[in-house]
């Protein structure tokens, strides 16, 4: 890459970009969709056009308009410039149609043209394709012009002038295209107008506390695609819109914007929503200007409780008029201003995700008489927003164009529904404008029928309510009396024997008056006797309550008193000590094999009577007894038969008796002719034993709670057991999160299907999803499936108003029908709230589950969590399950539970990870690649196992109690363990950590920075420590050992405890270096490729023709590739060749990189290694950065030693200690006594370089590149946000001052990052191994030049005393404003630990070598400073000149 020439091409002029062009340019070159800002359209002349004349006419028009001759380039100052060429003709193509169906062919051509990716640097930025339809004697013109140079209002003058030029040429005349005003003049006027006024308070007041936009659409995974649907309003409806707008004194734009707000309110269920609209900034005289004179303004609407459509219209009118008064402020400037005032925004997409554009017919009226064209046709371009609505007005009707980004399988169908909803809103608003918004009809008949069809399944079970479960069992047993019914302890009981024994139980109970659903309690462990008893209870006409013998005696006592049972059947060996029995309770022994009796005849109960009672945990701590009727149980049996396609299956009886799925195991098997297999008690908790048992017994069907299934999957992955007979695995009880263990389990058993079953205890089975055979196609969060037969399940957006949620809208799942429990025992108020009358079916009960789901267009329901689980973190709505799925996937732990906990007046997430292995030290960084920062847990506590409820679900209350008691700690330690004892000083320091981090440290030895600490928090902790402890300790000393114990000892005067023995750390006693065997087809291995310099090294190495592989911390190659793409986007690099990079998913700091058996293959297969990975942090001590910078180096030396692979190490000039280094420092100088190195990063690099020197002695070829200041890219200015030099300049600009003595310090030895990367590669390739090189600019930029450049950027910085400057930085940091960037480092500066001394460096040898390899040092250029400012302004990291202080990034 080379910097652009300071002079434009011959015949071209360099001009400033317009206020809006910079943002569009940056989004176009760094965004994921290069076509996002294309502007295609279709024109249909009524006559055939001569192609030669058309080309000439196009050339004439394009040469007349500066905008159409424009390309873009970053100029030497780093600002985006327009390059206006003297001639830049458009791309003109011609295609002839020869086959059938011309309209389909035209559509294909339009799609192809719209997908053009323009080169904004080289141009041209316009493409015209001439389609000739010979059979029709007509031409069709397809245009595509990039939005940076053209807006929607430019098409009218453009097309009119094109027709006029064509007509003139056809008549033999020269076309007279003479614009009265050029775009560049209009841009200059716009820029002057807004910069002179600055960002108005209007936008800050309207948008400062705006919520994050809610997602729109169906759940889906993978890459989103752009979907478009159109719907035309008929003539009469369109006419009514005009009449209504005139009557209300509003424009049609206001009308449709108001309906857009209503759509968002209803779709997202949020009362505070925002959307964007385009507005023209054309002033008088600009009507005929061709160019980009459009800005985006953001509107906001807060919906009040009873607001009507008319209320929304009034509010929108006021909003639009206010926005138009301030329309000249560019959107990028508004976003930067909001960020500067403290609003957490990454860009405009963090503010709104919906855009509405209304195209009035007048703006498109062409009257092209010669061509016979009255208007043009809108063609959707690329995707810029989640939802874009275009209202296309023609003289006689409106067309609604809905564009949607969707990753869902049926994104097309959902988008069509969105278009229909908008049409329905139009009708409702016109008919009933005074209807409250929340009551407006907004879904069409077709969608309502589809929703009802998927959710109302009661009628699909016509036999429901006419069958008893006991009769189903009896019928099946009589049909196959000799078939095996139960297998336990090697003994098989056939159906005849089972029926005989159950009949005996029934006879005994009937004699005791059991009938009509009377409850009978059962206290037994899983056994054939337990199964016999519950069947016998049903045969007698009673209902059963199965108790768990392992439950606490208090719970057993409560259940027996609460359920109303007068009989308890219990087996010998059950310890009843401590259980308080109700007065009058009769105790019966479990039935033995010798019991005899005949089941009572006659009708002893009805389908409406209770079949069983199950107890669930209550929100108040009191268990709730749920009564379920016979209808529920019978429907359960029928649906199980449907799900298993009528097969008789060997079914594992795994569930505890008190869990309601026990009922499904027993009756879903024994009423369908299957065999119930009861495992030994030990196999229920030993999952390797359970796997072996399932294989031995040829289990075909099993039911598991989610936690147990994960344990089984993990056991199967580590043992050699296969389950070839297994066909169905049902998971229930908790949200299913697919893990790699689960995928592997089903890959190894390809005939097995996983069924995600959903059903609350109050209704049992309601829906089920059978996952496909291809486990790679499984989403991380599978749906809970479609509603099963016999159940009505409604998704209600408003339960009280009985409003059904349409497709894609979150709502509460409510289950209705005869399967619903009549209520809770002894809890009438709770029953009244939960079991309500069905608003859709008279006489039917509806149960409010409290579960939030989204209904997809295929009828599948996607679980979103509990109503009471969702929390708001920093204004964002967070569903903990989403964070749990990401943590499990990224950190490769067995299971995760996330809860929200208070911290410093806000809520933060706290995660519990079940894992035998320690968490990776970089877990925050890993999560940062897939989660926004507000969803990354503040802390993760590792536990050996999750506490479970009696039903096998994760007990979240117990987890919260662990935090409250502060007993469960990272790593599974406990606070009362001997090594976790706390001294008084440590307790006091832990209290300070609590104030700063929002949580107490788990042990005295956890690392501050690994607990979420960063530089700003470290500075805050330092201040608190000085205030509360009366100590003058320095920040560096306090952080020398960044643990509670280390800090407490430092405050106690033991300041030597944390000083590392660097000489000892740098010892390398041995290193095995094998003989070199050249790889047959070796690649270059790069570490640190996702970092700043590393990503540019990858870019340079690829450009040099190398085959590349990158070692990246990731669980998969695809995840690693995604991290690379993100880095390239961040630093504005071309990511088109990322797919060519081979990803090595590993961890530099783990033994053998965590590659296992592939380690040797990798070590012998690479030709050379570039090592750019490093933990760069100026505040973190050696203790923290050692893991990556030192231990990582040791691992890499071992790796390269396997095949004597040449290693190129990126080091720093900072390895030379200020007090033990003689000047000048040349390439062969050796870093001396490290005692005066005050920064942990420099200390770690000192150790690493000494390790490298010793490795050379063992015969390993190592080249060391010591790098000085690395600046932004020479062309784009892209740079690290936490670069020290940048933070210095940013601090000067934002604070408006600089320390007066800085102009006397040495020059800044800055080099652009792309040059540094190129120099490293050239030296490594062109010079011998085992050399040291110094990469810095020998002259550099003086601070006088840098200060002048900052002022030239428009920042009026003035000199102040150094102490005053530090105070300003410190105050800014203490106020929580990181705009100065360096504030947290002030204590270190005061202590002198960051001093570099008076060392001078030399690099004559390196400069000569660089010239030899064709990469001479460039002249120092203040343009590098300008380009960095331009980049950071573009990404919103620094305010424009005159802007408010900006919140930045911690160091």
What features would you describe in this structure?
By secondary structure, this protein is an alpha/beta fold. The protein has seven domains: 13-189, Chloramphenicol acetyltransferase-like domain (Chloramphenicol Acetyltransferase), CATH 3.30.559.10; 198-211 and 226-282 and 292-444, Nonribosomal peptide synthetase, condensation domain (Chloramphenicol Acetyltransferase, 2-Layer Sandwich), CATH 3.30.559; 454-604 and 654-678, 3-Layer(aba) Sandwich (Rossmann fold), CATH 3.40.50.12780; 793-865, Luciferase, domain 3 (Roll), CATH 2.30.38.10; 869-979, 2-Layer Sandwich (GMP Synthetase, Chain A, domain 3); 982-1058, ACP-like (Non-ribosomal Peptide Synthetase Peptidyl Carrier Protein, Chain A, Orthogonal Bundle), CATH 1.10.1200; 1064-1267, Rossmann fold (3-Layer(aba) Sandwich), CATH 3.40.50.720. The strands form 14 sheets. A seven-stranded parallel sheet has the order 44-43-42-45-46-47-51, sandwiched between helices. Strands 30, 31, 32, 34, 35 and 36 form a six-stranded antiparallel sheet that branches. Helix 35 links the parallel strand 46 (1207-1212) and strand 47 (1262-1267). Helix 31 crosses helix 37. It is globular and about 110 Å long. The two termini are 29 Å apart. Residues 1-6, 965-980, 1376-1380, 1391-1395 and 1443-1451 have low confidence and may be disordered.
Can you give me a brief rundown of this structure?
This protein has 1451 residues and is an alpha/beta fold.
Proportion of strand residues: 15-25%
Shape assignment: globular
Q: Remind me, CATH topology of the largest domain? A: Chloramphenicol Acetyltransferase
Helix content: 25-40%
Radius of gyration: 36 Å
CATH A-level architecture of the largest domain: 2-Layer Sandwich
Strands, total number: 52
Terminus-to-terminus distance: 29 Å
Q: On the 0-100 scale, what is the average pLDDT?
A: 85
- The strands making up the biggest β-sheet line up spatially as 44-43-42-45-46-47-51
Main CATH class of the largest domain: Alpha Beta
**Count the helices. How many?**
42
CATH homologous superfamily grouping of the largest domain: Nonribosomal peptide synthetase, condensation domain
Reported for the largest beta sheet, the result is: 7 strands, parallel
**SS class:** alpha/beta
Low-confidence stretches: 1-6, 965-980, 1376-1380, 1391-1395, 1443-1451
The domain count comes to 7
